[in-house]
TrEMBL record:
Name recorded for this polypeptide: NmrA-like domain-containing protein
GO molecular function list: aldehyde dehydrogenase (NAD+) activity
Domain NmrA-like residues, every copy: 5-80
Pfam annotation, one family: NmrA
Species name: Cercophora samala
Domain of life assignment: Eukaryota
């Protein structure tokens, strides 16, 4: 049987690098072509995978490259931000492949179900990816892209919706989770760990490596279908939406019980805690957090991003990833490699400040 062609987008990112590594370990026989923007990414993939992954030098703005690669693939995996994806080019190109079955795994995000931020009262709603799909909001972050993907004809689609990602990644430039530089930037400015308002908002977290495992299970199911297995409508299509969440705690508990001990155990990070001794968390208003994050951009824009991330620290992101468990056997343990995430951000700040 000929090799199955996979087009991989986002291979150099925090999530994407972890997914690619796990995919190669689980499915070494796939023919994977990965879109990367920089020559250093090409060199890195060659070093790590020794030719088992073929690099395609380009970006998502190179729509001709995206279309050509998608048209040759039977499976496309996107781990890049959904707002950057040229879906109107990619999906028709994938659908044009003459193979009778084509599959697309999309990365979305649980911001789709965020209620208005409040650190005073945890939101009571816990969203299920089994029972609540018909009532998902349609006017929030990720919503329109999710709908466009899940209803596209001629392609079997599945959407992975990560929660608050924490952990380590083999990525060269994005070892830290995306929100961690902002989380620790505010911590450094305040000299102690912080929460929005009282920090009672409940949030679901997921470990990077365990998140990657969900993508691998989906890819494995796609491979099985291409090889003759029946396509399951509970995995692919309009119902193929998978929350990726491992454990739930309040942001106050996360700051005091998880983050603070790790910071105190890191020789560099503990020096940031100039106001921490004998204190718990510092309660900040949402606008204070927005302003603090915005300062990291040195006047180079960032307003929308700063607001989005600050709201993430202050909202209740409560989900249950039941679909992955029921139909794919995905079982996150709830363990998280927080030490590695903090160390990665420490190195990020050190490298950034050494360049100034």
């Amino acid at each position: 049987m000929s090799k199955i062609n996979v087009f991989f987008i986002g291979a150099s990112g925090h999530i994407g690098a972890a997914v690619l590594q796990a995919l190669h370990a689980a499915q070494p026989g796939l023919s994977v072509r990965a879109l990367v923007r920089l020559q250093e990414d090409v060199d890195h993939l060659q070093l790590v995978y020794q030719g088992a992954v073929t690099s395609v030098l380009g970006s998502l703005e190179d729509v001709d490259i995206v279309a050509e690669e998608a048209s040759k693939a039977q499976l496309v995996i996107n781990c890049a931000p959904d707002f950057a994806l040229p879906l109107d080019t990619l999906l028709p190109a994938l659908a044009s492949n003459p193979h009778p079955l084509k599959f697309f795994i999309q990365t979305s995000g649980a911001a789709r179900i965020w209620p208005p931020p409040s650190g005073i009262t945890p939101h009571p709603k816990i969203w299920s990816d089994l029972d609540d799909l018909p009532s998902f909001p349609t006017d929030t972050t990720h919503a329109q892209t999710d709908i466009a993907v899940s209803t596209f004809p001629g392609v079997n689609t599945a959407i992975v919706s990560p929660t608050f990602v924490v952990g380590r990644s083999p990525s060269v430039r994005h070892k830290h989770p995306i929100a961690f530089p902002d989380l620790l930037h505010v911590t450094r400015q305040q000299g102690q760990v912080f929460v929005v308002e009282e920090g009672r908002n409940l949030t679901t977290f997921v470990d990077t490596e365990e998140l990657a495992g969900l993508y691998v299970l989906l890819a494995g199911d796609a491979v099985g279908c291409i090889q003759g297995k029946e396509v399951d409508g509970e995995i692919w299509g309009p119902r193929g939406y998978f929350f990726a969440g491992g454990w739930e705690v309040s942001m106050r508990e996360f700051a005091e019980g998880y983050l603070l001990p790790v910071l105190e155990g890191n020789e560099t990070a503990k020096r940031w805690l100039t106001n921490q001794e004998g204190k718990g968390v510092k309660e900040l208003g949402l606008e204070e957090v927005v302003g603090s994050i915005l300062g990291r951009f040195d006047g180079q824009g960032g307003e929308a991003w700063s607001s989005h991330i600050a709201e993430g620290f202050g909202t209740s992101m409560r989900v249950r990833g039941e679909r992955g468990r029921k139909y794919l056997g995905w079982e996150p343990t709830g363990r998280v490699k927080l030490e590695e995430a903090v160390e990665a951000v420490v190195r990020y700040f050190e490298e950034r400040e050494n360049l100034k």
